[in-house]
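1st attempt posting a full record on here, be nice pls
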Amino acid sequence: MTGERRIRVAVAGLGAIGQALALRLAGGAVPSVELVAVAARDLDKAARFVATLAHPAKVLPVEALEPEADLVIECAPAAVLGDIIGPFLRAKKQALVLSVGALLSRSDLIDLAKQTGGSILVPTGALIGLDAMLAAAEGTITSVRMVTRKPPGGLVGAPHLVANNISIEGLTEPKRVFTGTARDAAKGFPANLNVAVALALAGVGPDKTVLEIWADPTVTRNTHTISVESDSARFTMTIENIPSENPKTGRIVAQSVIALLRKMSATLKVGT
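the predicted structure (as tokens):
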């Protein structure tokens, strides 16, 4: 990248996905990108992690990230989404969001990006077929249905299960724990269903995208099956994602972020 300015990137949140991204970016996975800073709730623990990276990065509180970076990658709990990306949007910079479900209740952040010229990027993540969905949405989509099956351990603690006193302990056969819209799924399963919101935003919206969620002890991978009817195509897609160290999140999510960053500066860009 001689003579070309690198994109300075900060990673906010050092869970399984944040750590995986920091390791790859510090290791030079994307030559056009430089990891300059990280933020986490436990700064001392974050400093110990950063000390293991191939190249140093600053360890900072969330509010100190924006002056250091051109783009922030949000890998944190949904509750702090605004604290992380707000400063970047106000500075007309970019924010790559993994807590996509939180955007449904924070439309003010989308409005902020429109007002300032900042931008919010949503990676494909654990999904398949977003390109096809985006293309179909240029015409008329009549139905979108998604069925998610996860090992029970990946759904433990979800607000919908707690609020409705739904037990998934000791399951020996699949149990349907939710049927409804992507909007309701985002509220009930905030750590699990960002994929559904990404699908909805690419297609017919969160109130017309229908979901089923199953706690399934017979599967070892987070599985999503999507069926779409439109005036241009009918398609069904299934993806089985290997969980990361965090069973709520697929390993492919971090790889999707790396692919998006690589595409941003690529001379040949494949896909919609």
